[in-house]
Design goal:
Protein Transport Mog1p, Chain A; 8-stranded antiparallel β-sheet; 36% helix; 160 residues; 4 helices; single chain; alpha+beta
Length: 160
């Protein structure tokens, strides 16, 4: 009887721990006054990401949120990896490929924002941010005028 109780307590702990750590809403309904207009997940998001790059770039789980409001639009792309190391490796691979010589992006730099290494770049009339948080790789695109504020607001959501 005691053995069963211990196993049930362990199982309950694992269920609660898993639900607390994996249920973070990476694409909230509203960010910085912009409302979520469309959310892609699963196969639809994977197909969108691969089509955007004109070839297969990932097999991992993806989520994409398209936001809009009075001030303009933003997009949050998230690729969810099994662990931080895989997400970090993908971050380095992605940022190494982006350079003024072979892409539409320019003015790239690595910045420390709120204690996080964030790759920033410009292109296609927007500012872009690439970073890792836990086991997730993020690419955020927002209007240049308020992109930094949008990022700060979103990072505060991720820290909750």
């Amino acid at each position: 009887m005691i053995r069963i109780k211990i196993h049930l307590n362990s199982l309950l702990f694992l269920v609660l721990f898993y639900s607390c750590t994996s249920n973070q809403n990476l694409l909230p309904d509203e960010i910085y006054g912009l409302k979520l207009q469309k959310k892609l997940e699963g196969k639809e998001a994977l197909a969108y990401v691969n089509k955007l790059h004109f070839n297969k770039v990932t097999n991992e789980e993806n989520q994409i949120g398209f936001y809009a409001g009075r001030n303009g639009m933003a997009v949050i792309y998230v690729t969810i990896y099994r662990d931080n190391e895989k997400a970090t490796n993908a971050y380095h691979k992605m940022t190494d490929k982006i350079s003024p010589l072979n892409s539409v992006f320019y003015g790239s730099s690595i910045e420390n924002i709120n204690g996080k290494e964030i790759y920033t770049t410009y292109g296609m009339e927007a500012k872009h941010f690439v970073f890792v948080n836990d086991n997730n790789l993020f690419w955020i695109t927002a209007a240049r005028k308020w992109a930094d504020d949008f990022l700060d607001y979103y990072l505060s959501i991720l820290q909750k």
